[in-house]
Amino acid sequence: MSSTLIFRLILLAVSLVMIPVEASVEDAWPKFIQPMIPKINARLPKAQTASPNVSSSLTNKPVVIIIIDDIGDNYRLGKRATDLPVAVNLAFLPRTPFAAKLANRGFKNGHDIMLHLPMESTTRKDLLRDEALTQDLTTQELEQKFLQNLAEIPHVQGFNNHMGSLLTAMPDQMNWLMTVAAEQDLYFVDSRTTAKSVALQQATSKGIAALGRDVFLDPVGDQVSVENQLTRGLQIAQRKGMVIMIGHPYQNTMEVLERLLPNYRDQFQFLTVSDYLGQQKLLAQNSSTTGNKHQ
Ligand SMILES: [Zn+2]
């Protein structure tokens, strides 16, 4: 165990003393997280260098998890995502020219590295590439494609879906997929590209640490709308205790995040998914230890 990891565990342990456990576990965090806590695995939290969020984990400020999807085709914009001024989660498209190089850079900068797994959607079949998971694949083919895609991204800790409005609504396919994900000790974030998605339910039923997107930052794309979506997400974090926002490596999105995120460091904790899940695990352990004392 590295000294950095030990230091971070000590900081997290201190934070447990400072956080009112009843309030943070019972009220602030979504209920769907509770069933998956026991399965959170040794992958979390990973030793990272220069993590920007260690000191903020000492507080019970609202948690903001930002995922940047679709990284790998454009080096310049992808690099800006890896250099964002707070901890974020970088989701890489497989078989793209810059995914491996940018994943190494992002990991060194303390961000989480995710596979952005392409899946069949109900529209835009023209955008499907060879590596995408589609409804016509057998169980074995789906497993093989998933593993091939995973192997392309170094330091991968979890995954979310790219497109997938068709496939994430198919219980059998999601069941097969999450079986493999559980074997690989991955976490999952449902991008929620359809309200009919069953991916999060299937992941949770396999004991996978799983979360779902709340807000897309840039469905319109101009800077004012990205700012408005960011504000909306921060309001959700204040109300619920946490929020998951997904953006893309677009020029406007990067400019807004680079400019505004430093202003919110005092009010919010910007966490990687793995740091958030690690906090949850420690809170749950602390909560159960406290409970035992009263038996
Ligand atoms: Zn995508």
From TrEMBL:
It comes from the Bacteria. InterPro entries: Divergent_DAC, Glyco_hydro/deAcase_b/a-brl. This is Divergent polysaccharide deacetylase family protein. GO terms for biological process: carbohydrate metabolic process. Gene3D superfamilies: Glycoside hydrolase/deacetylase. CDD domains: CE4_DAC2.
